Amino acid sequence: MATGGNNPFQWLGLLKWSLAYSDGTQPSGDTEPMSKDDVEFLEKVMKEGIIDEGERMKSILKDLTDSLGMMLGESKQEEKRKELEEDDMIELLQELRDIVEQIDYARAFMAMGGIPFLLGCATYHAAKIDGAERTIPKSIRKGALGVFSTMCQNNAPVQLACLEHGHMPQLIQLFFDYTPGNECGNDGDDSIREKVVQAMSASIRSHSMAEHIFCQNEQGKVMLQLGLGMQQTTPKPSAQLRKRSLFLLRALLTSDDATIERHRKFQDVISFICTHEIDDMWEEDAEIREMSLAMLSQLLRFKSTQSDQSSIQEQVSKVILQHKNHIGSIGVTRIQAIRNLKEGSEEREYATLELDEWESLMVALAEADKEGGSDGNDVVPQLAICDFGRNM
After folding, report:
1. How confident is the model at residue 31 (pLDDT cuts 50, 70, 90)?
2. 33 confidence band (pLDDT: 50, 70, 90)
């Protein structure tokens, strides 16, 4: 996916230019000559051996941009630049990720042009340079997505900047590009798709505007459906990808900004959780079953801050109560099976949390049924068959 204009290296060039003229800690136009006190302070810092994280970040970025330029054939041969091995670049990305865990450094990196750089690095498509196909290794793409996730986490200014850079369609398309059966000819790769969902989650959770935009995007919903395994045409996604997708779904549905429209939009996904993800005959991963049970209990007790709170609660309960007989049947069997496990055994201890979640859900289900009632007719949806493609 091109990130702008006709120059495939624009994302790389922007960061190089920014590194040359700014350290990201303040607008470049506001620079003034350093005072004597500032000079003395900096000299003291250097003498005491304190690491300047801002300068270290700038050094890491320069090494990465130089190496990526060489890797992609963007740099001219007469230019003397440092070229790192793939493993060295991954280590630098990990160090960068550690630095941007601090909110202020994440914002400094954003000011350097870090967002388009990371998106460009993660979504770059192979191109022929001088007759040879050049691309970015998957390990570096995943490293870039990891840094992106960390810098966005609980950082509203960075999340807003991501929206301004149009990150959602780029990440969604990257997810589709590595989904089995994609139109790019890539092998399916759940390790990349998991990183994409993680990056999307970090960039939108707890940001009202970002959550709203994502929930209005049909391709975003398809991404979650595919991540959860709501399709028959491809292999079941990895457990880690299913967990990431379920975590994001739960965050969106239990957000303070969740609306009745959002719950209606995802009601088929909620039904899938009710009929598949809590069933040990379908979902073999105990942690995913626990997460699914906890989500359903939370939804049944969900109290929104929106003006239509009662309507939202009624909508949520209605969807889940449609499956109360199915849920009850699975629950009774599973609770009995866990209780029959030998006391003190490792297997019983391992299943304790699932037992607690089942008991909590059964209580929440009974309370919701008493308050709202239902016709008792289960509606078990067939697996959704999700179409995806490159046209966003």
Report:
1. low
2. confident
User: In angstroms, rounded to a whole number, what is the distance separating the alpha carbons of residues 175 and 284?
Assistant: 24
Report the C-alpha gap between 64 and 136 in whole angstroms.
12
Higher pLDDT, 114 or 33: 114
SS3 assignment for the chain: CCCCCCCCCHHHHHHHHHHHHCCCCCCHHHCCCCCHHHHHHHHHHHHHCCCCHHHHHHHHHHHHHHHHHHHCCCCCCCCCCCCCCHHHHHHHHHHHHHHCCCHHHHHHHHHCCHHHHHHHHHHCCCEEECCEEECCCHHHHHHHHHHHHHHHCCCHHHHHHHHHCCHHHHHHHHHHHCCCCCCCCCCCCHHHHHHHHHHHHHHHCCCHHHHHHHHHCHHHHHHHHHHHCCCCCCCCCCHHHHHHHHHHHHHHHCCCCCCHHHHHHCHHHHHHHHHHHCCCCCCCCHHHHHHHHHHHHHHHCCCCCCCCHHHHHHHHHHHHHCCHHHHHHHHHHHHHHHHCCCCCCHHHHHHHHHHHHHHHHHHHHHHHHHHHCCCCCCCCCCCCCCCCCCCC
Whole-prediction pTM = 0.82
- CB burial of residue 217 (10 Å; 0-12, 13-18, 19+): middle
Mean pLDDT is lowest, of 60-69, 218-227, 364-373, for: 364-373
Place 265 in a pLDDT band, splitting at 50, 70 and 90: very high
C-alpha 389/C-alpha 381 separation (Å) is 24
| One-letter amino acid for residue 123 of the chain | T
